[in-house]
Amino acid sequence: MICYTEFEDYTAGEIANDLPVGGAYCEQKLGRWVDEAQYHILSFLGNGWGTAPLRFPDELAIGFTKLVAGHEGVVTWDVPIQKTGLIPDEFLCQLKAIGKAVRP
């Protein structure tokens, strides 16, 4: 996690295929702030940006979200949006499971 400019409020955090969970990532002393920006991860719950099906079981998505939140970071999960403007049920259920698990 790095900041590219001094003007960032949060790290872009765009993670595509590999969630950062080991190696140099875990060796970083992560806290709420990276330089002066909010520690933030952006990734997708589906096969790609805005696509289905789900790529993770609930336990993995929950565990990763808890890992980041445990370092006072935040996660934004991208989900597909149907033509009706609704989130598909499987994604909505997973988001609810994540929310329930990370709330104190």
Structural notes for this entry:
With 104 residues, the protein is an alpha+beta fold. The protein has one domain. 30% of the residues lie in helices and 13% in strands. The strands form two sheets. Strands 1-2 form a two-stranded antiparallel ribbon. It has a two-stranded parallel ribbon with strand order 3-4. A hairpin with a 2-residue loop joins strand 1 and strand 2. The chain is globular and about 40 Å long.
Quick gist of this model?
The protein has 104 residues and is α+β, with helices and mostly antiparallel strands. It has three helices and four strands. The chain has helices at 24-27, 58-70, 89-102; strands at 33-34, 37-38, 40-44, 74-78.
Topology:
Layout: H1 24-27, E1 33-34, E2 37-38, E3 40-44, H2 58-70, E4 74-78, H3 89-102
Parallel strand pairs: 3-4
Antiparallel strand pairs: 1-2
Helix pairs in contact: 2-3
Task: Label this structure with key terms.
alpha+beta, two-stranded antiparallel sheet, two-stranded parallel sheet, single chain, 3 helices, 4 strands, 104 residues
Portion of residues within helices: 25-40%
Helix count equals 3
Tally of extended strands?
4
Q: What is the rounded distance between the termini?
A: 26 Å
- Shape annotation: globular
What is the CA-atom radius of gyration, in angstroms? 14 Å
Number of domains: 1
| Arithmetic mean of pLDDT | 85
Going across the biggest sheet, name each strand in turn.
1-2
The run of helices and strands is HEEEHEH
Described by its quaternary structure, the protein is single chain
Low-confidence runs of at least 5 consecutive residues: none
Strand content: 5-15%
Major sheet: 2 strands, antiparallel
